[in-house]
Write a structure and sequence with these properties.
Shape: globular
Strand content: 5-15%
Number of strands: 8
Length: about 240
């Protein structure tokens, strides 16, 4: 085997597994189009349905830790490229904190890493957050732009209750090495400049941007669900980082 062939073989063996983590209300199915494109390009892909997001499951048994562990199980010993969409950023950040050496790159899809003690909504009451509670606001606010009527109907039909603990409970972070893991924020519903501006204004969810030491921002103008509205473009970005 020539040195060129050896280098190519080593590169192929060292290819990062791509772990796709959906945001609130969604299961692995949300990544079907992106995952298919990545697999066709030769990547190993694991798309997750996090605990409590299976249809008919009991949301009361779900904890933040159960989501963190599910991500860690998929990452394994690495190398992995971790892709986190929307509200999964809380558990994903905690997973990176636990296994910074196993994660080669993180792609944040219209979301960002969070800080220690962060929670989406500590005041949430009841068993969880239903998509119907925010549907009209998301639709009117432009988050769902570029989605077809069929995609919207599928989203609403297949969305499940987001367990209360995932929305309400804070994450605990301990290892600052997570801040040096290379990361890319794919800004879709807002531009990268808007992300930076909102962070500077002190928006709580974006506090994590100021901590990172190896994060870049890439614009992909569309709505908040680019895995449906821009699957080819998103898959290409993920593949490049992986």
């Amino acid at each position: 085997m020539t040195s060129t062939q050896t280098d190519q073989h080593s590169s192929e063996n060292d290819q990062a597994r791509i772990v796709l983590v959906p945001g609130f209300w969604l299961g692995a199915w949300a990544w079907d189009d992106v995952a298919e494109r990545l697999r066709a390009a030769g990547h190993e892909v694991v798309a997750l349905t996090l605990p409590g997001l299976e249809p008919g499951s009991d949301p009361s048994t779900v904890t933040v830790e159960s989501h963190v562990q599910a991500i860690l199980d998929a990452v394994g010993e690495g190398p992995a490229a971790l892709v986190s969409h929307s509200g999964s950023a809380f558990a994903a950040t905690a997973a990176i904190d636990r296994a910074p050496d196993a994660v080669r790159h993180v792609v944040w899809v219209d979301t960002c890493p969070v800080v220690d003690g962060a929670a989406m909504d500590a005041s949430l009451e009841g068993p969880g957050l239903a998509i119907d509670a925010v549907w009209d606001d998301e639709l009117e606010g432009g988050s769902m732009r570029d989605l077809t009527d069929e995609q919207l109907a599928t989203f609403r039909e297949r969305a499940v209750l987001e367990p209360a603990a995932i929305v309400r409970d804070p994450v605990a972070l301990h290892d600052d090495r997570r801040l040096d893991v290379p990361q890319t924020l794919v800004a879709t519903a807002f531009t990268g400049d808007e992300y930076r501006a909102y962070a500077e204004q002190g928006v709580p969810f974006l506090r994590g941007l100021g901590e990172q030491r190896a994060l870049t921002i890439v614009d992909l103008p569309t709505g908040h669900w680019p895995m449906w509205s821009k699957p080819a473009e998103l898959a290409a970005l993920i593949a490049e980082r992986a």
